[in-house]
Known about the structure:
This protein is of the alpha/beta class. The protein has helices at 16-27, 79-93, 108-118, 136-150, 166-178, 195-204, 225-232, 246-251, 259-262, 268-277, 292-299, 309-319; strands spanning 51-53, 60-62, 66-67, 98-100, 126-131, 155-160, 182-188, 209-213, 235-239, 284-285. Strands 3-4-5-6-7-8-9-10 form an eight-stranded parallel beta sheet. A two-stranded antiparallel ribbon has the order 1-2. Strand 1 and strand 2 form a beta hairpin. Helix 1 packs parallel to helix 2 (79-93), helix 3 (108-118) runs parallel beside helix 4 and helix 6 (195-204) packs parallel to helix 7 (225-232). It is globular and about 55 Å long.
Amino acid sequence: xxxxxxRMIAGRGMxxxxxxxxxxxxxxxxxxxxxxxxxxxxxxxxAAMPTRPIPSTQExxxxxxxxxxxxxxxxxESAEYRRLPEVLRTLFEARGSVIDTSPMYGRAxxxxxxxxAAGGLRSRAFVATKxxxxxxxxxxxxxxxxxxxxxxxxxxxxxxxxxxxxxxxLSTLRDWQAAGRVRYVGxxxxxxxxxxxxxxxxxxxxxxxxxxxxxxxxxxxxxxILPLAAERGMAVLINRPFxxxxxxxxxxDRPLPPWAAEIGATSWAQVLLKxxxxxSAVTCAIPGTGRAEHVADNVRAAFGTLPxxxxxxxxxDSIDA
Length: 321
């Protein structure tokens, strides 16, 4: 996929040393002892982002994370790149941690690795990436390259993307997990057309994580996939919580309904994320963005009321209309 066009800073290219100084400076406020945590609007005073347990270990995971598709696929000299330290700062100030990336996302893995390393922030992040190729040797090569770009020797989560050659890659990953090279293993998909195959794999293979699409206009996962994940003890990451962005674009100029105030939502993004988080099988939603203001808005959905199914049954059709 193509990257946004780069812009030159002060009429010239930025050297790696200059970039690292810039990124480190922008991220300095995130370091332990770097100052008091900023309170997020709508957040109870002193509260950290709510967490949910990873079923296989009970490790708590913050319920809003960050996807890097498009937003982190940028050139080092670009204005978009210079905004990304603030994106990470906003996530970490809300005490989020989950960052999801992929070798299919252009420069996103490299950008993520550089920014975390420059700010000394790796220990604060739960980093997930994917393998999407065929064959054991090629899978190992791709996963090793991802770890090199992310600048890690141990990865939090490696996922077999779209179930490609899943038996081969899960065999490798079980060896890597036993050796301590990855902490968690998962599988992913992003379209309901694959749910039949996905369900079969979920019943056959025991994995720690499932990443799947789920939103107000993509609710098919409610029927069998999310209940099965709960039954099988899998943590669930939600990609496409905004329906790939289409729902937000459609709602952008529509005023919030009166009932949004009942659940503490002040934007459509928060309404849509609260819908996703209201499902008990969901562990964390990972909306993608390269803008700090979007992260700040997204994380507010973690606070306040998460309505029950009866509430959404009354209102969700009006959102999707």
